[in-house]
């Protein structure tokens, strides 16, 4: 099993910054792609940014130029640096990891419990 724990959410004014972290723990063979998702009230969960185990990244249009995803494979930790935050960024942010428990296991998706980000003056 892979446990994912997010941290770093909170209340910030428009134009401010936050850095989210996602720490992975448990027994697993490898963690492949990791991603940040978010879900605002009444909306579907949407992908914000993804990063492969080799560091290749991809961003939603709404995040390009403002958010930066990164990971430290040695620490099994992923980050999301969010700058120039807008009220429409308000949502619960979830960490996702695609991992294999054993070398012969198929990849499975794991989710964190989410961290609230509120952008408001």
Structure commentary:
It is built from no helices and 11 strands. The protein is mostly beta strands and 121 residues long. A hairpin with a 7-residue loop joins strand 9 (91-100) and strand 10. The protein is elongated. The N and C termini lie far apart (40 Å).
Please outline the helices and strands.
Layout lengths: L1 E6 L2 E3 L5 E9 L3 E10 L6 E6 L5 E3 L7 E6 L4 E6 L8 E10 L7 E4 L3 E5 L2
Parallel strand pairs: 2-11
Antiparallel strand pairs: 1-3, 3-8, 4-5, 4-9, 5-6, 7-8, 9-10, 9-11
Query: Looking at the structure, what is the overall shape?
Result: elongated
Secondary-structure element series: EEEEEEEEEEE
Distance between the termini: 40 Å
Strand percentage, roughly? over 45%
Which structural class do the helices and strands define? mainly beta
Keywords:
121 residues; seven-stranded mixed beta sheet; four-stranded antiparallel beta sheet; single chain
In short:
The chain is mainly beta. The chain contains no helices and eleven strands.
